[in-house]
Design a protein that fits this description.
Layout: E1 2-6, H1 14-17, H2 25-38, E2 44-47, E3 50-53, H3 55-64, E4 68-72, H4 78-92, H5 97-113, H6 130-138, H7 142-156, H8 160-168, H9 173-193, H10 198-205, E5 208-212, H11 215-220, E6 227-230, H12 240-251, E7 256-260, H13 266-274, E8 279-286, E9 293-295, E10 300-302, E11 304-310, E12 320-322, H14 339-349, E13 355-358, H15 365-372, E14 376-381, H16 384-399, H17 408-414
Parallel strand pairs: 2-4, 5-14, 6-7, 6-13, 8-12, 13-14
Antiparallel strand pairs: 1-4, 2-3, 7-11, 8-11, 9-10
Helix pairs in contact: 2-3, 4-5, 5-6, 5-7, 6-7, 9-16, 12-13, 14-15, 15-16
Length: about 425
């Protein structure tokens, strides 16, 4: 049925309105232009006088003084009304994959809680599962619907403003998962630190030191590491750190220097390093699985990084190091590498008991695996917050086992080294 033309008798339910993704400013502008030119040609949809569809159009019509029509739908209760809203949004809007996933997942959860089972569709006489029903309606697989339900459950556990951001498409579910894990990891680190004994800290201090300072200042203090293994930032504005690193390692006469690099500015990186260090070889650091980085300027999906090796050739080594599939670890730092990949590099390039240095320590990944593999460690970073997190992480990892370190063979096994 169609209700008479009206200007302000439609009621807004805040809970219903919160189920609808907001339009972007550009979309609002386009909608307003269309309404100015053509009027409100599509009816607003109501249930018992409450608006279900057309919130954005209603707001613009009320602002511009435009007439609109309403069409009522017959639904048994509020839960059915909420499901109608989400099903309608899935059918009509140009949604992001995460928005669609969230809406499908919420529909699944609501239908599972409702009394009774869904009836057959496509002429079937037997009831079918909720996942199969929604999969047919939305053109996806039942397993996708069940995955959507888990993602929706996670989103609905977030604070209201983060739920809204996912629904509006201003953030992604993956970003929120990473954000939540990061907060939980920080809390876990702080809680674990309270259990570390004074003896454990003293033992750690004898084999590990992490400072807040620059690479140049670290080496100016007189350290003499057996090897430098490091992963400086790759962006163009940080190219000068490669020159600083090379000068510092040359001044300390470091026997082996291994520098991970991106490839966008690789010629310049090589030039800066070779001004002070003797080039030996390039290792391929593989990052298999879903870790490919898209280099838009070069149109390349890259699944490996070069590790530039400097110093005299002494021991033999294999020139392909590998991170375990899908093992990128950004929990402690946005540029963090995997423990498995760093363990492979440490294993190939150093020996137990040697002093390993990372002057761009970041989240402390190299420190953790070096200590676990029986090396000593010294490192630094100019970011005091990163050093704080790295120190916490190192202390917890070091104190986890009875004798103050993770067993050597256990680390080898986890890293896939034997």
């Amino acid at each position: 049925m169609t209700e008479p033309k009206c200007h302000g008798v439609v009621r807004i339910d805040p809970e219903f309105k919160a189920l609808i993704p907001r339009l972007s400013p550009e979309e609002v502008g386009q909608l307003e232009e269309n309404l100015r030119m053509h009027g409100c040609r599509d009816s607003l949809v109501t249930w018992r006088g409450v608006l279900l569809d057309g919130h954005h159009r209603l707001a613009i019509c009320q602002t511009l003084g435009l007439s609109f029509k309403t069409t009522a739908v017959d639904l048994p209760d509020r839960e059915a009304a909420k499901d109608w809203i989400e099903a309608n949004q899935l059918g009509r809007r140009n949604l992001t994959p995460d928005q669609a996933s969230l809406l499908r997942g919420r529909r699944y959860q609501r239908m599972k809680k409702s009394v009774g089972k869904p009836v057959g569709i496509m002429g079937q006489s037997d009831p079918i599962s909720t996942a199969e029903t929604l999969a047919h309606q939305h053109g996806v697989s039942p397993s996708t619907i069940k995955r959507d339900a888990k993602r929706a459950e996670f989103v609905d556990s977030l604070p209201a403003e983060r739920q809204r951001a996912v629904l509006d498409g201003t953030t992604t579910i993956s970003k929120e998962i990473r954000r939540t894990r990061h907060v939980a990891d920080e809390a876990e680190l702080e809680a674990a630190q309270t259990k570390i004994t004074t003896d454990a800290r003293q033992n750690l201090a004898s084999v590990c030191e992490v400072r807040v300072c620059s690479c140049a200042d670290l080496f100016a203090s007189g350290i003499r590491p057996d090897a430098v293994i490091t992963d400086p930032p790759y962006q163009q504005e940080f190219l000068s750190v490669f020159s600083e690193l090379a000068k510092a390692c040359a001044s300390a006469d470091v026997p082996l220097v291994a520098v991970m690099s991106g490839q966008s500015y690789l010629p310049e990186v090589l030039r800066l390093l070779c001004e002070h260090l003797v080039y030996r070889w390039t290792l391929a650091y593989l990052t298999p699985g879903g870790q490919a980085v898209q280099q838009w300027s070069a149109k390349v999906n890259t699944t490996w990084k070069p590790v530039l090796l400097f110093g005299d050739a002494t021991d033999w080594f294999g020139d392909v190091a590998t991170s375990k599939p899908n093992d990128n670890d950004k929990r402690f730092h946005g540029w963090g590498q995997s423990e498995s990949g760093m363990a492979d590099l440490v294993e190939r390039l150093t020996k137990p008991g040697q002093l390993v240095c990372d002057p761009f320590v970041g989240g402390g990944t190299l420190a953790v695996v070096a200590l676990a593999l029986g090396r000593r460690f010294v490192g630094c970073d100019v970011d005091s917050d990163a050093v704080k997190i790295a120190r916490q992480r190192i202390e917890v990892a070091y104190a986890r086992e009875e004798h103050g370190t993770v067993p050597y063979e256990e680390v080898r096994r986890k890293a896939g080294l034997g």
